[in-house]
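User: quick one
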Amino acid sequence: MPLPSDENNPEARAGSAALSIRGLAKRFGEKIAVNGVTLEVPQGSFYGLVGPNGAGKTTTLSMATGLLRPDFGQALVHGVDVWARPLEAKKLMGILPDGVRLFDRLTGEQLVTYAGLLRGMDRETVAERTGDLLRAFDLTNDAGTLVVDYSAGMTKKIALASALIHAPKLLVLDEPFESVDPVSAANIRDILANYVQSGGSVIVSSHVMDLVQRMCDHVAVIAAGTVLAAGTVDEVRGDATLEDRFVELVGGRNTSDGLSWLRTS
Amino acid sequence: MVANLLRLKLLLLRNSLKRSTAQLVGVILGGLYGLGILSLLVVGLVLLGSADVEFIRTVLVIGGSAAVLGWLVIPIAATGIDMTLDPARFVTFAIPMRQLLAGLVLGGLVGIPGVVTLIASLAQVLTWIRYPAAALTALVCGLVAVLLCVVASRLVTTAVSSMTGSRRFKDVNGIIAFIPLIFLGPTIGGVTAGFQNSPGFASSLADVLAWTPLGALWAAPADVAAGEAGLAVARFLIGVATLALFLVLWSRSLSHALVTPPYNAVTKRAGGNLGFLGRFPATPAGAVTARALTYWFRDPRYSASLVIIPFVAVLLFFSGGASGGAFAFLGPITAFLMAWSISADISYDNTAFSLHVSTGVSGRDDRSGRAAALLVFALPITLVFTLVPLVVAGRIGDAPAMLGLSLGLLLTGAGLSSVVSARYTYNVPLPGESAFKTPPGTNFTMFAVQFIGWLVMLLLALPEIVLAIAYLVTGNMLFGWLALLVGVALGAILLVVGIRMGGRWYDRRAPELLLAVSANR
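Assistant: Done. Structure below.
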């Protein structure tokens, strides 16, 4: 597994922010998708971004990673402004976007290799890391299959592998566990935990509160394009479980009897 | 239920138009064009009424048979041409078969082909207005024929829908489906020639067709007009029997399709084969070249245009003969078409383009990589296609001028495409779709960009075009060599300029490009 090498980079100081999102905002037509989101992802943290569907998680992460130009605000990766010095910032980041296609007429192996070569890495390193990544994600036997023929979970894994190939210092993962089987998900969690232990930083978005509570040390709750709460997981959840706290913050639980006809007796 | 299915189809049509204004403009322009054709058709059919019965019959039978054949064949050629009411989507709803059939038939009529066929079949009633009995027969037979068209096309769609689940089938079909279409022109040309050479050809063709399910229904009114009621009944029965048979077959294959979901068999394959990625330089530009080239061979949307190239040669050869005419300009024509083909490259990537944005590939690497992939195969093809016709015609002396023209167009076009695709995106078939499928509502911007792009390309290549013409007119070799020199030098300069300009544009606008292609999915 490629791991971030901190000793080569004297600038990296413990405690400084791996990703600093400052007042990002985006409007699509009449709809304000993200309304001034500010977040600090400390270096070496495992940061969870949770929110209901359509809360603006993907839009926020796209703007933070240089995929979508914000209307307002700034995003800094280890102090590098993503929109002022995009090439430098993108070198530091590994990105797993959600809901985008892949170059799926390549085989899994070719796709990861392609991602490495696009990053300007040399052939030997790419080949070595591609092999490691395919093994780590249990895709070795499907390495020569076209990605278009992969299942949803395998597609997610190969996209994640493409995001890791250049050993980034920050991983931005949008819904990394969606449709991934439990065994692979556990493997991915181990990989990410190791990565964080070695000094890397991760920000993941997810719907699965349980997962975030177990896996992450920091969390931000976002709804309707605004941050409702942010901090360490223990700060945010207080005495309750993260899920209860989330529902309390976001609201929207139906307390009425609901579908009274949906009964079998 | 029938009304629901109909409403669903209309709603899908309306919603697909609401997504962008440019698309709407395209639909309106297309609609106006279709309306023009349709009114010509109606006027023609009405005027036809004043001809003698024999002539009317010949025209209606041949035209009508062509329409039925079209409804039958086009769905095979263009898988997914209209899958909005794909039976597979109704699997989870318990709709009674009878109502589903009726709903799908009526749904098939909604849309431009259905409306045109219906109106034409009604106009055909007016053709027979001088013979009231025949007109009445024409009305009944026409409506049955329209039903036959829709049912036949639905039958075909359903029958292939179990196969279309497999990606390989889709891929192969997407490519070979082009071939009959390419030969459509020459075939029509051949049939027309047949008409002109022997006056009896058309009427004997109509005689044969009149006894087949394709033409029987269109021939019956003529029998009535000629006073042969027995024949008319026989022909009507042929048509109705065919309709009934198709209905039975369709309902069987539909009930089969509803319980057998498409299955895509995939064989696992271990890695080790990097393909082009292992053969090109291990740089970002080299990787882009290798990836683009892989797509030229593996993505049916690209390979369809590769497959077409040899057919263009065959076509031009037969249309103008080996010595002169269009075949002599095979090189410049293919160069022109191939160079323009990468002008929608980013649109074809769709959101997969996000990998280029997130890895921070520089504009120059992206542009030059894609242009290089094109030139890898376009350059040899252009050379061969320019020189072979000259050798065949024994005019090898023209080589410098023609090479200058071809190479100039290819290089200039590649440069221009590099700029265009960094600036404009338009709706193209999505990854995995048939190369045929135009997204609902052909985009107006696309036509505009295409038209202006071609003009600019010719303008940029004007020096070598003028020199080549000067050579062809005067026969002075100096002009020929000058055309070669100018074509290659100016083309190369424009290619570099195009890559740089497109690259700068790309660097500034990559996120906007990504946003633009995300709209089309």
